[in-house]
Amino acid sequence: MTHWSGARTFIAAATVAFGLLYLGGAIHAAAALAAYGFLLIVVLARAAIAGETRPVRVAGASGEKRATPLGSGPSLTILDRLPDPLIVLDGAGRVLLRNSAAEPLVVKQAVGKHVATVLRNAPLISCIESVLKGGPACSVEYTLPVPIERHFNAFVTPIETESAGPGPRKNFLVLVLLHDLTEAKRVESMRVDFVANASHELKTPLASLSGFIDTLSGHAKDDPEAREKFLGIMSDQAQRMRRLIDDLLSLSRIELREHVLPDQLVSLQGVVEDVMDALTPIARDSGVELVASAPATLPPVRGERDELAQIIQNLVDNALRYAQSGKRIEIGLSRETKGSRDVVRLTVRDFGPGIAREHIPRLTERFYRVDAATSRARGGTGLGLAIVKHIVNRHQGTLSIESEIGKGTTFLVQIPVAESGQGAPAGPSEEADDATAQNDASASVQAAQ
Questions:
Q1: Is residue 186 in a domain?
Q2: Least confident of 218-227, 307-316, 339-348, 410-419
Q3: Dihedral sign for Cα atoms in the order 392, 446, 288, 279
Q4: How far apart are CA 393 and CA 443, in angstroms?
């Protein structure tokens, strides 16, 4: 579609009118040319004074045609490709240009409409109106509550451009640049929650230790029975702080390396056997039967052995803490195909009381507990499953949780199989583990009968 300026429209109409008058014999040719020339001079002079220029057409993602005096060619293409939403207004507050990133934030066919009908946010509109009235550049943060809450910082500044045409003239425009703060706000909220939770978790045992120290320094210092009781409680609280600090440091290390892919070849069969050996005494003392099963052969995965061991240990430890009533924990390994890639599937299943459905999506959040009092009483830090989630992410795997009240819970982890020629063996111990596992038709260990 051709965009006509006012001058070109008048010239075209005058040409047609004088042509018809001449052809109809209503006017002599010389008179027609003289009148036409005079009007042409008047129109061109008016265009020069008004700074009327030829509009530049830019098509947005929806094919909307937009006219703007900002320039043409590469400059407008660059603006359209900016990742941040950008809107340009004329001196009357009408939209001259919006780039593709701004399209989801404004109404359809926004070009030509007043900004108040396009961006319906009171603080932002107030900032824009202030600049339109000659005020200085300003910025404002605002929130879009629907459909999904998003946070933006808007920078509004006046700009002046030179108009093309016979006479120099400046155009007064207003640039509105939006920056999405949603992710930054989410990260900041997580940081604040993390610091608050970590401080609370550390403050509780510290307060307990301080209280017992005061008691032992006072009337209980000469009471051997009370002294032994209080020292035992103080030891438990110190161990709780040590576990929390260890988990915090572990989580921090894993998050720092989460974007770095591991490069070792690891046999999960060997890792499961090592974890079983370490947790067998604990399971036996708790009266829980710990059983592991795997096929005769499994391909190695690309991973870091210590982190994969921590996944299994945290999941089994979690089951031992909260599902002792089931008296049995099963660890299973198998090979599956997920989409276009092969994975090794690890399952840890308990037969305890189960977890209510509404809690499952939040189980991997830091410090989230279904029952905070019970968790602390059993030595839980609230970080074990968060650590599992980040390790699984680093290994490009998936974690899912299935649970049914009264029947128990199953944690399912899928780790991609290492591709041919990918990674290096984790070490001699892993090769020995592979040989041991392959000699058995089924690796099954019963820790407690």
A1: yes
A2: 218-227
A3: negative
A4: 27
Structural tokens at position 103: 């399209």
Based on the domain organization, do 32 and 64 belong to the same domain? Answer: no
What are the residues whose beta carbons fall under 8 Å from the beta carbon of 301, sequence distance 6 or more? 265, 266, 268, 308, 344, 395, 415, 416, 417, 418
Is 170 exposed, middle or buried, given 0-12, 13-18 or 19+ CB atoms closer than 10 A?
A: exposed
Distance in angstroms (rounded) separating the CA atoms of residues 286 and 327: 8
Q: What is the pLDDT of residue 147?
A: 74
CA angle 179, 366, 208 (to 5 degrees): 130
Instruction: Give the CATH number of the domain where residue 216 resides.
Output: 1.10.287.130
In DSSP terms, 291 is beta-bridged to 330, 446
Alpha helices in 29-140 (DSSP H): 29-50, 74-81, 115-118, 122-132
Residue 382 belongs to a domain = yes
User: Residue 81 CB: number of other CB atoms within 10 A?
Assistant: 10
Answer yes or no: are the C-beta atoms of 283 and 329 closer than 8 Å: yes
Q: Please name the residues in contact with 134: beta carbons below 8 A apart, sequence gap of 6 or more.
A: 158
* Of 350 and 43, more confident: 350
pLDDT of residue 128: 94
pTM across the whole model: 0.54
Number of domains observed in the structure of the chain: 4
- Residue 30 CA to residue 40 CA, distance in Å, equals 15
**Which 3 state secondary structure label does DSSP give 209?**
helix
Give me the pLDDT at residue 423, please: 54
Domain extent at residue 409: 260-446
Here the CATH number for the domain that contains residue 140 is 3.30.450.20
Give yes or no: residues 133 and 212 share one domain.
Answer: no
184 DSSP β-pair partners: none
Q: Which of 78-92, 236-250, 386-400 bottoms out in mean pLDDT, i.e. has the lowest?
A: 236-250
Give the integer Cα–Cα distance in Å for 143 and 149: 7
